[in-house]
Each structure stands twice: as structure tokens, then as C-alpha cells.
Amino acid sequence: MRVLYLTLLLLIPVPAFANPVAEMIVTSARERTYSNVRYDPKYVRLAYPGGDVSPDTGVCTDVVIRTYRNAFGFDFQKAVHEDMRSDFSAYPKIWGLKRPDKNIDHRRVPNLETYLKRKGASVPITKNAADYKPGDIVSWRLGGRLPHIGIVSDKKASDGTPLIIHNIGEGPKEENMLFSFDINGHFRFEPKTRLN
Prior knowledge:
Layout: H1 2-11, H2 20-32, E1 38-39, E2 57-58, H3 60-72, H4 76-86, H5 109-118, E3 137-142, E4 146-156, E5 162-166, E6 173-175, E7 182-187
Helix pairs in contact: 2-3
């Protein structure tokens, strides 16, 4: 009987993802790693809505922006811009701007962090790898000050730490770096509407 039970367990397919939203996010983020992207943080005038820099360029925020656009048709450019227009004072004043700028605001990590917090997407920051689920968005401060952002993968390092899909300067990659820097934000975001 035990052998039959074990045999049946082996025949039952186990889904790779318990959450279909997480699967869409991770699949779309991983597609970013197949693109040849040169890290380029320069200011670029963008179409609006749905604007994007050249597909062969990008920074860490562009991994998140393109992931959500491809997975859900969700436009962080429009979402952040509209939220900043409705309450500009809620956003960081790091860049000395007097009003929102639809060309760059969504491509700045502190603005994405603020938007995600305002949408109730924050989840606790911990040092427990199991708390970071596939599809989560994590932000860091590199060297204690430089903002960075990426997406939690479904793949794990040998010690059980989830890999991160991000662009830290050499194009989008999937790497073991979750706890390599100070975590500043942890988010679980499922867009409610398509914006473009």
C-alpha cells in the first residue's frame, strides 16, 4: 500500500507556482534576462502613457516597469504620474522638482517605493528567506545610500535564498543577492487595473 501511495504521489503534477499572479510576474521578469540591455540611467523624453526608453537600454527600475507592462498591461509611468499629480507632497523631494515629470518619476526607486506603499503593497522586511515570495518586489540601498530595486525569482540558491531578477549595471540578471545589501522595501503588488 505504501509503495502504491508513493507511486501515485510521483504521478501527481505539482504546480511550480501556487499563485498565478506571481507566475506571471516571474515569467515576465525572467524574459528581461534574455534581452541584451546596456545600463543607461540618462534622462530621456518619453511618450505618455506607455513610454519607455530604447529596448536595448535600461536601469533597475526598467526591469520592474517592463515586467508589469508585459505581464499585466500595467503602466507604472501613468500610475506614478497620476498619483504624484494628485499628491505631489507625498513623494520624495530628492531631485528638487516643483511638479511631477512623466519622463523620469516612475524610473526612480524612491518614487516606486512611495507609490507601492501608498497602494498598500508593503510587506514586512525580515532576514528570513522564506518571507520573500516569487514575484515580490524588493528595494535596497547599496552602500547605505544608492537606491536599487528587483523582483524575487522562484529559483533559489543552494542555501534556500531566493534569487533576484534585477539590473545592477550589466543588464538584467538572475542572481543571489537578496541579503547582500540593506533592504529598504519589500512589496507584494498585484495591479487592480490595466492603465494603458
